[in-house]
Write a structure and sequence with these properties.
Elements (H helix, E strand, L loop, with lengths): L3 E5 L2 H8 L3 E8 L2 E8 L2 E7 L4 H13 L5 E10 L9 E9 L21 E2 L2 H15 L6 H6 L7 E8 L7 H10 L3 E5 L2 H10 L4 E9 L5 H26 L1
Parallel strand pairs: 1-4, 1-5, 5-10, 6-8, 8-9
Antiparallel strand pairs: 2-3, 3-4, 5-9, 6-7, 6-10
Bound molecules: adenine.
EC number: 3.2.2.9
InterPro entries: Nucleoside_phosphorylase_d, Nucleoside_phosphorylase_sf
Pfam family, one: PNP_UDP_1
Length: about 250
């Protein structure tokens, strides 16, 4: 059967998933280790993507063309942009856009030239089942423990909507304000999702992008980001994906 591809952005996240996976073989391609095996009875391929849109596009292409993945699920962290999108919250992308794509005046700003579109939709059915898994995980009392509480993460919320991607870490108030003005419905910003979305669209593959908010893309983003990834991100990704596959 064709595998489900699980793509991680962070070493910590992949490690948490790999710890639960029965790996059958590791295929090294394009500088990446693709772990092929079984997770909760599902045929899976797990891979660390790398950072940025090109890394995401390369990884997604290989997953589709070489591994014949039947669907792609990306898990990672993101900076919160939308009002009320706080550190520790989970964002499930309904659609994705490249905020740094601009071929104007030849094409409208953000539009992928010659495709006629700027937003790429995640798979509805995948999102529905992932949202259910997210709620089960975050609604479990005391799930996040004392380390997360020390970071101010208490009761995370699930948000669904637009996620934007670009080859830039957004780490100052001016940059995040500019994005909020330009794309007022954007919930979160990261560096891979929209690239994966474009490739998945080209390959006709269903996909989903699941992000935990590590920072608010503001002046303290780099500090929050580094503190957060060890404490919360790996746990949320592994628990949600595990829950989702187990159901
Ligand atoms: N991933 C996590 N936080 C981010 C930020 N502030 N900008 C871009 N990508 C991110």
């Amino acid at each position: 059967s064709r595998p489900t591809a699980l793509v991680g952005a962070m070493q910590q996240e992949l490690a948490a998933l790999l710890a639960r996976c029965e790996t059958e073989r590791v295929v090294r391609l394009a500088g990446r280790d693709f772990h092929v095996g079984r997770l909760h009875g599902h045929h899976v391929v797990l891979v660390l993507c790398g950072i940025g849109k090109v890394a995401a596009a390369t990884t997604a292409t290989l997953l589709g063309a070489h591994f014949r993945a039947r669907r792609l699920v990306f898990t990672g962290v993101a900076g919160g942009l939308g009002e009320g999108v706080r550190v520790g919250d989970v964002v499930l992308a309904d659609c994705l856009l490249q905020h740094d794509l601009d071929a104007s005046p030849l094409f409208p700003r953000h539009e992928v030239p010659l495709t006629g579109r700027s937003r790429f939709d995640a798979d509805t059915a995948l999102n529905l089942s992932l949202a259910r898994a997210v709620r089960r995980v975050i609604d479990r009392p005391g799930h996040f423990g004392p380390d997360a509480a020390a970071l101010g993460v208490t009761q995370p919320q699930l948000h669904r909507g637009l996620v934007i991607s670009g080859d830039r870490f957004i780490g100052d108030a001016q940059a995040s304000l500019a994005l909020q003005r330009e794309l007022p419905d954007a919930l979160a910003v990261e560096m891979e999702g929209a690239a994966l979305a474009q490739v998945a669209h080209d390959l006709s593959l269903p996909f989903a992008v699941l992000r935990t908010i590590s920072d608010r893309a503001d002046d303290s983003a780099h500090v929050d980001f580094l503190r957060f990834i060890d404490v919360v991100a790996a746990q949320v990704s592994a628990d949600v994906v595990g829950r989702w596959l187990a159901d």
